[in-house]
Amino acid sequence: MAEHLTTTIKSEIQEVSISRDLPTIIIGERINPTGRKKLQEELKKGNFDTVSRDAIAQVEAGAAILDVNAGVPRADEPALLVEMIKHILAITDVPLCIDTANVAALEAALKLYPGKALVNSVNGEENKLEAILPLIKEYGAAVIGLTMDDDGIPKTVQKRLDIARKIIERATKIGIPLEDIVIDPLALSMGAEEGAGKIALKSIQAISKEFGVNITMGCSNISFGIPDREAINATFMGMAICCGLTCPITNPLKEQVHMAILAADLCMGRDEFATNWIGAYRKRKK
Amino acid sequence: MSDFPELTQAVIDGVGKKVLELVNAELEAGTTPQSILADYMIPGMLEVGNLMQEGEYFIPEVLRAAKAMKGALEILEPLIAESGGTDSAGYVVIGTVDGDIHDIGKNLVGMLLKGSGFEVNDLGVSVTTDTFIEALRARSGPVLLGLSALITPTMDEMPAVVKAVEDAGLRERVKIMVGGAPIDQEFADEIGADGTAEDAAGAVALAKRLLA
């Protein structure tokens, strides 16, 4: 059993620590135009009102880090990502998770970002490792490693563990500290893939036990194609936290899921005197 | 109560064991395998597509129906081949474009097309342009090419594939449909594809139109 590592993400003035011994850190997922046509149109016109609103609402609802994605079809992604980050920096102090598959956009964002960002993401594909890891090292960022590679997303826990190992080895070899690597073992839809939930949970368990690294996951995907998604997401979230998930990428405005996170922290002994649970209860009653 | 024959309803309900029993019973009663497929099973799969389109059916229910269908096809296909084949609704090559590994939408379209009598060659995910072209070349006559992309960065692969089909001199006999969450009609028109659809059932209707 590897020791529990602490990943620290910083804005200019705020510091967030992610650890298996601390309450779960929510990375707010909303600032993402994928599948949001209206937001795409706004961003194309240089209107950042929704971005600002999403940022504030998520922070108020409990997000400690905000994911920022600028994936608008055929837009200038580096320029757009930089603009979005500037707008968010102007209204909130929470650290950011820079979410892009575009290396030029990533570099532009890291150059601008005044703290220690979390980068979403690298994976086991050779060209990704080669292009992204040196940037992480150069800018002293932390990075999310997805357990997929040139052959796609493995169907077995062992292969996902192997890819996590490969990413960790390659990153630490160039001097990225182990604690700055966060692994995302990938949740696929249980609606479309038999056993997707079980593989995700077992992978979280195996990877955290083997390396002690922090674990993130986009947990909403798990219920794609099935009714009453929020109930499934909430249950899965609690189970995943029990298995070793420490910083889910999710929407804190979804009350059931948020409550599942707080309840899981309480169950895991990470919420002394139930302070967070009771605080959230009072906020709901207001 | 259901208006469908028992076998059709069993496909819709996705009860594999019952589908097999009823298929065997029909064969013993002398129904041709072609008729079992065309008159009972394909209408079942089309109804599954409709139910999904109406929001009545969920993805696991489509998968269950496709699995029930597949089990019966393993019995029927050799028999159909023996007795001189059948009229396929057409030949379709599908795949998710290079750099994109999302396969749920593409798989649903593939299953419904297969269930609707099309011959489907599913090339999988993150399919390179060369692989698409190779698959199109390997088949003579009219072919329908279905391209899927779920994330915005990979949408740009689609015009590249369309262009490659043109450059390879295949465009006259290859119809192209594109689909996926970020794709709309405007995009399809702009890149010179022959169409797109809102959902998997819509894709089957489009495929029929394009290969008609």
What's the SSE blueprint?
The complex is a heterodimer of chains A (286) and B (212).
Chain A: E1 7-10, E2 15-18, E3 27-28, H1 37-44, H2 49-60, E4 65-69, H3 77-91, E5 96-99, H4 103-112, E6 118-123, H5 126-139, E7 142-146, H6 157-173, E8 181-184, H7 196-211, E9 214-215, H8 229-243, E10 249-250, H9 255-267, H10 275-285
Parallel strand pairs in A: 3-4, 3-10, 4-5, 5-6, 6-7, 7-8, 8-9
Antiparallel strand pairs in A: 1-2
Helix pairs in contact in A: 2-3, 3-4, 4-5, 6-7, 7-8, 8-9
Chain B: H1 6-13, H2 16-28, H3 33-53, H4 59-82, E1 91-96, H5 104-115, E2 119-122, H6 129-137, E3 143-148, H7 152-155, H8 157-167, E4 174-179, H9 185-190, E5 195-196, H10 200-211
Parallel strand pairs in B: 1-2, 1-3, 3-4, 4-5
Quick rundown:
Chain A is of the alpha/beta class and 286 residues long. Chain A has helices at residues 37-44, 49-60, 77-91, 103-112, 126-139, 157-173, 196-211, 229-243, 255-267, 275-285, and strands at residues 7-10, 15-18, 27-28, 65-69, 96-99, 118-123, 142-146, 181-184, 214-215, 249-250. In chain A, helix 7 links the parallel strand 8 and strand 9 (214-215).
